[in-house]
């Protein structure tokens, strides 16, 4: 399996440290709001990466963290904690906000058929691990204290620039971070922030340096070490994490552990909506409910993610999403007629050959830097072959059902759906067949319409009328 590695700026072969196990850490949500579809694009891409590894017979060990403390509004060290800000706005406790949006996030994973990560650690459950991690950095002389917290001294870690290929001279003008005159360099980042002297925070803990809370980045270093050890195979996140969050994770972890944090750094591109970047201020943060309220399935949304390559910026419009919905319906139409096909006892050898070839191509495209659009086009090719058949043996049905399991495991979508007809529906189909033989097209159309209203589509191949679920 090959993946584009941000660290090397090239496509690298995955060489798992403990083959066949592959360890993966993906940066998870900050649980202060409902994720928008740009966030879900990223989480579905993590899922497709894990599914692809499993399909290539790797055993995955996947950590997805839940950030429930310490992520400040600026993404750097200034401003309020995102959860605290929301809690104040809604007149709730920060823990209540964290629970509400963590529960929502977990239900979103299952609504989108995203595999359950092996570990979903929360930052607030790992305060001691984060304190211990900061102590190691302190003992190595890599930290300093100023009035609002303990900071990582970037000057002590010369490889700091390597992931983002930063030019540090460009970073000191305050463009990236707000200026804090006490910091040695503006690029230095907080490991531990002190609680304000006035008032109590909902989330604060004692530490060797004083009461406060961890900086955002340290949770990932501490939890990655706990669950995956000092070096993991793949670390993933959105590309916006490259210059700050992942750069800081590398600095902390590699300075503390003395070895690389990850062999492959996998970054997913942004999603833009109607041509502009998603942002809360633009109020274009479409969520899952907005999709469902338009009668579009979340499975269609998943297909939209598969249709685009993770490496390029993806576009979202509701027209594109409707297109994905039609494409999904067509796949279901092309495969699900099998339960109504004309029965034969002859096995279709060509079908078996084509399925084997399609599986191989899909796996190869996924192994080639997770090329989901090409893997999907291999599936469409097979669909077009299958849709032109009308005879089917019981064994052919089993072969297609097995192929559906393969597609479901790799892509997380179902292309074969079985429905059972009521007696009335069966009668409508046989009546329509007779109307057609009598060339009574109006009556035949009427029967078709009634069936369509009940979610059953029809396709005529010769004299046979094949039926399939419409969604
Ligand atoms: Zn992280």
General description of the model:
With 471 residues, the protein is of the alpha/beta class. It folds into 3 domains: 2-268, HUPs (Rossmann fold), CATH 3.40.50.620; 288-411, no CATH class; 423-469, no CATH class. The chain has 15 helices and 17 strands. It has helices at residues 37-55, 82-90, 94-111, 127-139, 168-171, 216-228, 242-257, 288-292, 298-307, 318-336, 349-367, 372-387, 394-411, 423-437, 441-453; strands spanning 2-5, 10-13, 21-26, 59-64, 143-146, 149-152, 189-194, 212-214, 232-238, 262-268, 271-273, 276-277, 314-316, 342-343, 391-392, 456-461, 464-469. The strands form 6 sheets. A 4-stranded parallel sheet has the order 4-3-9-10, with helices on both faces. A 4-stranded antiparallel sheet has the order 5-6-7-8. α2 packs across α3 (94-111), α11 (349-367) runs parallel beside α13 and α14 runs antiparallel to α15. The longest helix is centred in the first third of the chain and has 19 residues, at 37-55. It is elongated. The protein starts with a strand and ends with a strand. The model has no long low-confidence stretch (mean pLDDT 92). Zinc ion binds next to α7.
For the sheet with most strands, the description reads: 4 strands, parallel
| Helix run count | 15
The CATH topology annotation of the largest domain reads as Rossmann fold
CATH superfamily of the largest domain: HUPs
Short description:
By secondary structure, the protein is an alpha/beta fold.
Layout of helices and strands:
Layout: E1 2-5, E2 10-13, E3 21-26, H1 37-55, E4 59-64, H2 82-90, H3 94-111, H4 127-139, E5 143-146, E6 149-152, H5 168-171, E7 189-194, E8 212-214, H6 216-228, E9 232-238, H7 242-257, E10 262-268, E11 271-273, E12 276-277, H8 288-292, H9 298-307, E13 314-316, H10 318-336, E14 342-343, H11 349-367, H12 372-387, E15 391-392, H13 394-411, H14 423-437, H15 441-453, E16 456-461, E17 464-469
Parallel strand pairs: 3-4, 3-9, 9-10, 11-13, 14-15
Antiparallel strand pairs: 1-2, 5-6, 6-7, 7-8, 11-12, 16-17
Helix pairs in contact: 1-13, 2-3, 4-6, 6-7, 9-10, 10-12, 11-12, 11-13, 14-15
The chain binds zinc ion.
């Amino acid at each position: 399996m090959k993946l584009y590695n941000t660290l090397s700026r090239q496509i690298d072969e995955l060489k798992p440290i403990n083959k066949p196990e592959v360890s993966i850490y993906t940066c998870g949500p900050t649980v202060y709001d409902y994720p928008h579809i740009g966030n879900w694009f990223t989480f579905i891409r993590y899922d497709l990466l894990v599914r692809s590894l499993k399909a290539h017979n790797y055993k995955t060990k996947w950590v997805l963290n839940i950030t429930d403390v310490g992520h400040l509004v600026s993404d750097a060290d200034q401003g309020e904690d995102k959860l605290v800000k929301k809690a104040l706005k809604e007149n709730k406790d920060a823990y209540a906000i964290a629970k509400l949006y963590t529960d929502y996030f977990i239900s979103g994973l299952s609504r989108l058929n995203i595999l359950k990560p092996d570990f979903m650690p929360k930052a607030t459950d790992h305060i001691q691990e984060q304190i211990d991690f900061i102590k190691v950095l302190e003992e190595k002389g890599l930290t300093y204290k100023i009035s609002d917290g303990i900071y990582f001294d970037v000057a002590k870690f010369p490889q700091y620039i390597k992931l983002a290929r930063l030019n540090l001279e460009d970073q000191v003008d305050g463009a990236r971070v707000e200026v804090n005159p006490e910091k040695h360099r503006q690029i230095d980042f907080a490991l531990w922030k002190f609680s304000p002297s006035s008032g109590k925070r909902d989330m604060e803990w004692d530490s060797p340096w004083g009461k406060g809370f961890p900086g955002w980045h340290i949770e990932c270093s501490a939890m990655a070490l706990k669950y995956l050890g000092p070096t993991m195979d793949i670390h993933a996140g959105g590309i916006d994490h490259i210059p700050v969050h992942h750069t800081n994770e590398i600095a902390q972890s590699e300075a503390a552990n003395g070895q690389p944090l990850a062999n492959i750094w996998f970054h997913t591109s942004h999603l833009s909506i109607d041509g502009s970047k998603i942002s809360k201020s633009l109020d274009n943060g479409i969520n899952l409910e907005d999709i469902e309220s338009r009668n579009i399935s979340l499975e269609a949304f998943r297909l939209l993610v598969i249709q685009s390559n993770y490496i390029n910026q993806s576009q979202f419009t509701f027209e594109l999403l409707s297109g994905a919905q039609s494409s999904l319906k067509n796949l279901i139409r092309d495969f699900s007629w099998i339960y109504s096909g004309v029965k034969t006892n002859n096995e279709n050898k060509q079908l078996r050959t084509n399925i084997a070839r399609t599986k191989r191509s899909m796996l190869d495209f996924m192994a080639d830097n997770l090329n989901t659009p090409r893997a999907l086009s291999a599936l469409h090719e097979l669909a077009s072959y299958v849709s032109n058949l009308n005879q089917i043996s019981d064994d052919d049905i089993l072969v297609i059902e097995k192929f559906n399991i393969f597609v479901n495991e790799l892509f997380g979508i179902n292309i074969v759906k079985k429905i059972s007809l009521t007696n009335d529906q069966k009668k409508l189909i046989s009546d329509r067949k007779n109307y057609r033989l009598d060339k009574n097209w109006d009556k035949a159309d009427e029967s078709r319409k009634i069936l369509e209203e009940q979610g059953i589509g029809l396709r005529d191949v010769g004299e046979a009328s094949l039926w399939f679920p419409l969604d």
